[in-house]
Design brief:
- There is one protein chain.
- It contains three helices and four strands; from the N terminus they run H-H-E-H-E-E-E.
- It has 97 residues and is of the alpha+beta class.
- Strands 3-2-1-4 form a four-stranded mixed sheet, with no helix packed on it.
- Strand 2 and strand 3 form a beta hairpin.
- Helix 1 packs across helix 2.
- The radius of gyration is 23 Å and the shape is rod-shaped.
C-alpha cells in the first residue's frame, strides 16, 4: 500500500460525521469515511546546511553554497532558492561534515 497523506482535521471530521450518522456497523463505517478522504498534495522536505566558503568571499563571489544543487548565495537564507532545501540558517565550513 502506497503512503498517502491526509489532513488530520479531515480525518477527525470524517469520523465525527460517521458517528452522527450512527455507527451501526462499528468501526467499519469510520474506516470507510477516512479512506474516502482524498490525499493531500505533499512533497518530502529536504534538509541541508549551507557550505560556507571563506575564500570565495575574499574573491567577491558568493560565500555560501547549497550542497544539494550547488547554487551559490551571498546570504545563508532559511532555504535554497533553487532547489528548496530547508536550511534553517545553518551552515558548515568548507571541508567539514
Amino acid at each position: 500500500m502506497s503512503e498517502e497523506y491526509i489532513k488530520k482535521r479531515d480525518a477527525i471530521n470524517a469520523v465525527v460525521n460517521a458517528e452522527r450518522i450512527g455507527l451501526a456497523f462499528g468501526y467499519s463505517r469510520a474506516i470507510d469515511a477516512v479512506r474516502a478522504i482524498p490525499p493531500d498534495d505533499v512533497a518530502p522536505v529536504v534538509h541541508a546546511k549551507w557550505i560556507y566558503h571563506p575564500n570565495w568571499e575574499l574573491d567577491g563571489e558568493c560565500a555560501y553554497q547549497c550542497p544539494k544543487c550547488q547554487m551559490g548565495s551571498d546570504i545563508n537564507h532559511n532555504y535554497c532558492m533553487r532547489c528548496g532545501a530547508k536550511m534553517n540558517n545553518e551552515w558548515i565550513y568548507e571541508g567539514e561534515e
